[in-house]
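Need residues for this backbone.
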């Protein structure tokens, strides 16, 4: 069993180690300063942060609804919310096109008033929200299920409003879950590829995020591809290290 486990670890780590060893460390600053890299990095950071904010704003009420309600309909809603976790990202991009494209369900009416989402930075944000929102919701919902309802009931009994209970009791108790969900959503948004390239395209300086730039740079600028890959690995590793004492320990318990 130990030998098999070692093989599994090697399978997971060897490709990452290869990126670290093959990265041109001596020219890393110059590579990161190239327009294709700096533009993709800037766009990724801005769009991922916007997507994360939307995940928090939209996902917190949704997580509260899923945690407090029950029944077959709620279970169905939960399944639909979590579907992007297992859905191939490119299928998510096709779904977004069919919904918000010029001939989509909502895209047609939006286009009639001059609002066009596909192949714009807004499309990048929307694709990132689509794939990242379930990570936030499932994490915050787990935290809400661990909150003692008696505390909220006691506060309500002495005259506290629902908003005050939420702000002074619920939020502090689920703060670790909120932080973990936010970090997971940010990391997922930064790494999104399939839905983005399908719905937003791969336009340099406009919709080309770091994962998209990696694929394009592999053909013409391998050093840039390695540098961007290294940045994405570092971001993912930072999230895992930050969550180790919170979300991951909670899963073990």
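Answer:
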């Amino acid at each position: 069993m130990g030998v098999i486990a070692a093989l599994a670890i090697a399978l997971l780590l060897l490709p990452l180690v290869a990126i670290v060893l093959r990265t041109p460390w001596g020219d890393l600053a110059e590579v990161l300063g190239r327009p294709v890299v700096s533009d993709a990095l800037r766009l990724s950071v801005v769009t991922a942060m916007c997507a994360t904010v939307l995940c928090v704003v939209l996902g917190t009420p949704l997580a509260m609804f899923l945690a407090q309600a029950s029944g077959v309909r709620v279970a169905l809603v939960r399944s639909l919310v979590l579907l992007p976790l297992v859905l191939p990202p490119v299928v998510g991009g096709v779904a977004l096109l069919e919904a918000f494209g010029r001939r989509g369900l909502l895209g047609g009416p939006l286009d009639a008033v001059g609002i066009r989402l596909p192949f714009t930075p807004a499309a990048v944000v929307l694709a990132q929200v689509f794939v990242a929102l379930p990570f936030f919701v499932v994490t915050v919902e787990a935290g809400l299920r661990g909150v003692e309802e008696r505390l909220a009931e006691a506060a309500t009994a002495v005259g506290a409003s629902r908003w005050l209970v939420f702000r002074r009791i619920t939020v502090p108790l689920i703060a670790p879950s909120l932080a973990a969900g936010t970090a997971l959503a940010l990391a997922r948004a930064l790494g999104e590829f399939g839905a983005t390239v399908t719905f937003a395209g791969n336009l340099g300086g406009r919709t080309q995020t770091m994962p998209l730039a990696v694929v394009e740079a592999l053909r013409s600028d391998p050093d840039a591809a390695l540098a961007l890959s290294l940045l994405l690995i570092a971001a993912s590793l930072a999230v895992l290290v930050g969550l180790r004492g919170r979300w991951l320990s909670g899963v073990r318990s």
